[in-house]
Amino acid sequence: MKVLCAEVLGFCMGVRRxxxxxxxxxxxxxxxxxxxxxxLIHNDVVLNDLESKGLKILSESAIEAxxxxxxxxxxxxxxxxxIYERLNxxxxxxxDCTCPRVMQNQKKCxxxxxxxxxxxxxxxxxxxxxxxxxxxxxxxxxxxxxxGEAERFDFEEYLKSPASQNAILLSQTTFSQSEYQRxxxxxxxxxxxxxxxxxxxxxxxxxxxxxxxxxxxxxGIAVIGGKKSANSLRLYEKARQICSNSxxxxxxxxxxxxxxCNSVGITAGASTPDRLVEEVKCALLHRNA
Length: 289
What we know:
Blueprint: E1 2-5, H1 13-28, E2 34-37, H2 44-52, E3 55-58, E4 71-74, H3 81-89, E5 93-96, H4 100-114, E6 118-122, H5 128-134, E7 141-144, H6 147-152, H7 155-158, E8 167-171, H8 177-190, E9 195-196, H9 202-212, E10 220-224, H10 230-242, E11 246-249, E12 263-268, H11 274-287
Parallel strand pairs: 1-12, 2-3, 2-4, 4-5, 6-7, 6-8, 8-9, 10-11, 10-12
Helix pairs in contact: 4-5, 9-10
C-alpha cells in the first residue's frame, strides 16, 4: 500500500498554541487543580491525555464547582465576557488559550454592536465559539446555520428599523466557505450596505486544498480527526467527494479491517496532533508489509 500525506494537515496555529500552553500550565502546577471550561479542543484522544496529566474539564454551567483562586484555562473556542467576569470575581487565575482568530471575531462583534450595528453571524448554534462570540453582542444578533435560514429570515420586518442598514456579517472560523458565500449573497441583496467580514480561518481551506491535490492519485483516503471537530467533519465530506473509499477515524485503532486500497491519502483536521498522524501512517504501511 502506497501512503501519501497531504501537504498541509494536523494542528493549526490556534490549537497548537492552546495545547502547548495547557501542557506548560499542568507541568508548572503539578498537584494543583487546573480546570478547562469545556473541552480545550475537539479531539478526545488529546483531551484524555491532558486529563491524565491533571486537567479537569467542566461545563460552563458547573463553574461554581471551581474552587476560589483556582487556575482556569479558557479553551481555544473562547467564552463569553460574562464568564471572565465570574472567574475574576472568584479570584481565579485565568490562562486564556482562545485562538487569536476567534479573539478577532469577538472584538469585531463587540465593536460593531457597540457602534449600534446589527451583528449577523454564520455558524453552528451549538458550537462553543459561536456561543462565546454571541456574548460579546450588546445589541441585535442573528445567527444563520445555513442558507435556508437566511432565506427564511423576515427581512421585511427587519428593514422597518431606521438602523437596519448598519449591519455586519461574521462567520464561525470553521464554517463552510461555500455556505458562507451563499449567506453573504442573500444578505448583500437585502442589505446592500452590510459589511461582509469573512472570518473563516484559512487553516480549514488550506487543508481542503491540500486534500484536493490528491484527487486521482489515491484510491482511498483516511481522515484523522475528532468526531466533534467541525473542520474535521468538513474535511471528511470533502474526502468523500474526491474518493468514495474514505474513512473518518480518531486514531490508528479505528482503521476498519476491510479498508483496502493500493494507494491511500492521509489528511487530518486542525485539532489532530502529529503523533496520531504518524501512528496511522505506520499502521497503514505495516498492514501492507
